[in-house]
Amino acid sequence: MVIHLVFTFSIALPIQITKLLRSGSLRVEDIPNTIVNLPVAIENLHASTSVPIEFNPIAMDTPQGSEAEFIVKYRQEYYDLSKFMHKHPGGINTLKGLNQADMTARFMKAPPHSDAAMYLMKEYKVKPEDTRVPKTKARHQARRVDNGQDSQEQEQHQPREPEDKNNNQLDESMEHLVDWSKAMLPQIANITTCYDEWVHKPVDRPLRLFGPWYLEMLTKTPWWLVPTFWIPVIMWCAWEDIYSSWQDKSQLALFIGYFLFGVLLWTFLEYTLHRWVFHIKLKSNSGPWICTFHFMIHGLHHKVPFDPMRLVFPPLPGAFLAMLIYTPLSYFLIQPRIVLSGALAGYLCYDMMHYYLHYGNPSFRHIVHMKRYHYQHHFTHQDLGYGISSPLWDVVFKTRIHLRKLKYQLRWS
């Protein structure tokens, strides 16, 4: 997985930048900023460059030269899903045939969408006066492409129902409670009575956490900075013990055992922190400080789950927390440095996997399962599915999310 990401950023990105320079879509003076913001650059490249047809089942339904637009009709409203397609929790191939189509019938027959998903949908709504809105009816009623249920075509027009069981009634927006053009963290104290409800209604828009630029800069972390920082630290912690035990098989076996124990220890810390710290129970009378703290450490990730610069933990605060946890444990553990190196290796895999689950296109069955599992945690079961790198402790503590079986493989690019 990590090798695939390194290949993408070291080889594919320069090729795409060259293409954009030749086409005039990118200026030479903008290249440094593009490289610094690699995850954002990749997201933009997904939206601005065409994908080979053999890997994109939607390309057949998109007119040539209009890859940047993917307009669908739901009920009486239109939505531009072009920037959402590769983020769609249900995969990009489930949207096949929907471009310039009325998706109402298929949507109502599909497995139910959560309230959070319906709230997020409003982010892509196109205003009636927008030139992208067709002046005539959608070209066809989209065929139903279901995954996990019996497939069936919807040829006849479905009568509009006032209510149904698929959450088709969109929630009233709560975004008027805050000013998205200003720093968000100081505003949390003003919405404490409804903070817990608001923070679990996701949006897809830029978020500024702090006012001063130098503080805001510290909250954004490109994914590649995490392995760049932590791999040398892990090697430094483990090198002396690796060197001393390399010639002794019994010592080497002990080293591997302590290292793997450190990895297992991390998975437990990952679960406990995610469940009892990041998802601390908040009420309408929770104080402004606890709400602000929650938003800063995890709430912002649930509010803007697609922000590519806030999917991994900044290294410096991470190092501080690592020392805070390691110091008391070092008095009780045997070979604490080896255990620490294993725990940090587990953390590194967790952070890389978390980024990949949001922006990767996995093909291995287990990673596909974990991506679906994590998206269920975001959009449906915020009180379940706390394991990200592994569902082990969800099974132990009975917070596991049970996913339905799929009839075909999901893809996200």
From TrEMBL:
PROSITE patterns: CYTOCHROME_B5_1, CYTOCHROME_B5_2
Cofactor note as given: Binds 2 Zn(2+) ions per subunit that likely form a catalytic dimetal center.
Domain of life: Eukaryota
GO biological process: fatty acid biosynthetic process
InterPro entries cross-referenced by the UniProt entry: Cyt_B5-like_heme/steroid-bd (IPR001199), Cyt_B5-like_heme/steroid_sf (IPR036400), Cyt_B5_heme-BS (IPR018506), Fatty_acid_hydroxylase (IPR006694), Scs7 (IPR014430)
Membrane topology: Multi-pass membrane protein
Transmembrane segments: 222-239, 251-269, 316-334
Source organism: Drosophila guanche (Fruit fly)
Residues that, per the record, bind heme: 88, 113
Family note: Belongs to the sterol desaturase family. SCS7 subfamily.
Pathway: Sphingolipid metabolism; Lipid metabolism
Extent of Basic and acidic residues compositional bias: 154-166
Domain Cytochrome b5 heme-binding: 50-130
Protein name: Blast:Fatty acid 2-hydroxylase
Keywords for this protein: Endoplasmic reticulum, Fatty acid biosynthesis, Fatty acid metabolism, Heme, Iron, Lipid biosynthesis, Lipid metabolism, Membrane, Metal-binding, Oxidoreductase, Transmembrane, Transmembrane helix, Zinc
Phylogenetic lineage: Eukaryota, Metazoa, Ecdysozoa, Arthropoda, Hexapoda
